[in-house]
Amino acid sequence: MEVSAEVEIVGNKSVQELALNFENLPPNNYIYNEGGVGFRDALLPSESDFHVPIIDIANLTSPSTSQHELHKLQSALHSCGFFLVINHGMTSSFLDKVSEVSKQFFELPKEEKQKYEREQINIEGYGNDTIYSENQMLDWCDRLFLKVHPEDQRNFKLWPQNPIDFRNTIQQYTECVWQLYEVILRVMAKTLNLEEDCFLKECGERGTMSMRTNYYPPCPMADHALGLKPHSDSSSITFLLQDKKVEGLQVLKDNRWFKVPIIHDALVINVGDQMEIMSNGIFQSPIHRVVVNAERERLSVAMFCRPNSEKEIQPIDKLVNESRPVLYKPVKDYAKIFLEYYQQGKRPIDAFKI
Ligand SMILES: O=C(O)CCC(=O)C(=O)O
Ligand SMILES: [Fe+2]
């Protein structure tokens, strides 16, 4: 799909500014007629046999890997593609700091934030939805999107200088998450009895990571708006630091929406489309969305780990056989086509299915 020009439909107001104007209803592009109470009242995992398991990663990295923990991970990967990780080596105060510097950025005056504004069509920087068509549904969310790994891809002119410890904190967080990423990819290979480095190799040298901080202001029509519309991620896997107090993330399973619980100090991990492709569909990239709240703001920090954009990726040979033929075409630079599909409510992965 060609990347087309960006269209302007609501002026260049941030969602934060729209939220300040509570007596005026948000523009139509934010309002889903089919919303209603059910929009926010998704099921809790405890209300069914659906689970988002909590994986103790320390149990999977010691020489005596716990088979029980490995099975738990295996079943999460095969059933919903979402799991929570604890014992990842980052302290509670450090994770709080990551959320705090991110929140402080969104609290700055408009003029200060605008110094880091994204350019038209460009995803990197501060802003909200890229708009491709007049009837596109918009997300009730402002964001700061930055390339964080490898170091030479950092575009520091878009990295906030204020709060003063933003850069340092995010650089440190990047290092920790990248290390964890390599560990998780090895363990995921292990659950399939593959060589531990097979997914890392398939991603090529110099895989990348981008950070998207999502800021969801309170919304006057919370039952009829979405913080993020239903999507799966373009990543191999995504690490999500949820808001500590305000829930909002939901995952689609068997045509029903479930809440992803908030567990203190746990990071949420989900399979992305590129992992679905590499695993030949054994790991499914889950569809998820974010609902908003009438009274409270919410903030989340997503780290999208991706293969090197110049590396063509495809299903791992050992996962292709007579009973499981190859299900996806090879793909290169998947993230590039992702955004325009997303904004039209489509899934790019469908275009690569054989
Ligand atoms: O805010 C959240 O909880 C989820 C964010 C998300 O799905 C994303 O950034 O892709
Ligand atoms: Fe997502």
Automatic annotation (TrEMBL):
Gene Ontology MF terms in the entry: codeine O-demethylase activity; L-ascorbic acid binding; metal ion binding; methyltransferase activity
Domain of life of the organism encoding this protein: Eukaryota
Residue span(s) of domain Fe2OG dioxygenase: 207-307
Record keywords: Iron, Metal-binding, Methyltransferase, Oxidoreductase, Transferase, Vitamin C
InterPro entries: DIOX_N, IPNS-like_FE2OG_OXY, IPNS-like_sf, Oxoglu/Fe-dep_dioxygenase_dom, Plant_2OG-oxidoreductases
EC top class, as a word: oxidoreductase
Enzyme nomenclature, EC number: 1.14.11.32
BP-aspect Gene Ontology terms: methylation
Keyword Hydrolase: no
Assigned protein family: Belongs to the iron/ascorbate-dependent oxidoreductase family.
PANTHER family xref list: OXOGLUTARATE/IRON-DEPENDENT DIOXYGENASE (PTHR47991)
Protein name in UniProt: 2OG-Fe(II) oxygenase family oxidoreductase
Source species of the chain: Medicago truncatula
Name of the encoding gene: 11443553
